[in-house]
Amino acid sequence: MSHANAPFTPEGRLRLVRRCAHRPIAHVAAEAGVSRQCLSKWKARFDELGEVGLVDRACVPHASPTQLDPDLVVLIESWRREHKWSARAIHLELTRRGHRVSVATVGRWLVRLGISRRRDIDPDGSTNRTVARIVARYPGHMVHLDVKKVGRIPDGGGWRAHGRGSAADKAAQRAKTKGAKAGYVYLHSAIDGYSRLAYTEHLPNQTAATTIGFFHRARAFFAAHGIGRLVRVVTDNGPNYTAKAFVRTVTAIASRHQRIRPHTPRNNGKVERYNRTLTEELLYAHIWTSEGERVAAIKIWNIHYNYHRPHTAAGDPPPASRLHQGVTNLMSQNS
Question: What's the CATH number of domain 142-334, 3.30.420.10, 3.30.43.10, 3.30.70.270, 3.30.413.10?
């Protein structure tokens, strides 16, 4: 919020309105950098209401003809408190009684009334749900897979390197119209949920066959770092992950293939956060002049991320250090 003497607050508007008593409104508005219509509005409010008319007004309509009837709001609250009905159940009951109220409207009113969550309507205010984090207990317990789609970089660099409308950008656009290879490339990533050890490959597509090949190479990468057994493989619901061939491959190696809840990427948050780090610290942290240059950088990134970049999950050391420590602790517990 601005301070009380800032320009165009009620105090500043009052000074402009007082100047209009001796000078034309258009001249005062031009000097102040506001439109004549705006200053005329303030002067009219001042003439009608005095200094109170210069105070900011709420941006709400004067009338809301489609506002929900207060009696229906009382009915929604009573059903929620007495029967513990959901927004959809309340919507269906209102529809049965001849009232056209959408599920979204019922949900918004439950939020306004402060009873949208189940714990809000318990007698003692307690909750019957426990908020928990998805935590891997040991290396290989949960391996997260995901694919990030990025634009292909034309030879010589695209508009990010030379600017939009530059000669290089126009040449790249002309090359595309003549049949040059364009489109997207796909960065397949796998990350161990315990150590955050990550493996990324630059691949041309995200078909099931390509994903299966990547999964085998990622498994070999993890095995080389001491993760010989995969218990749970977590993926989203992409067609490459729901393909029968991929499911058979995963279930033959791991104990379980777990697909996240649809449209809930936080359930696969380990690799989603890794993709964001990859984007910020590699993909858009440099200006690339070709796709081959970025491919070489991704290979170096695998080493940098696992062996040199500090990670909070490992207490600031890189992920590989936590992996070796976790394997050592696991062996000492079993001995």
Answer: 3.30.420.10
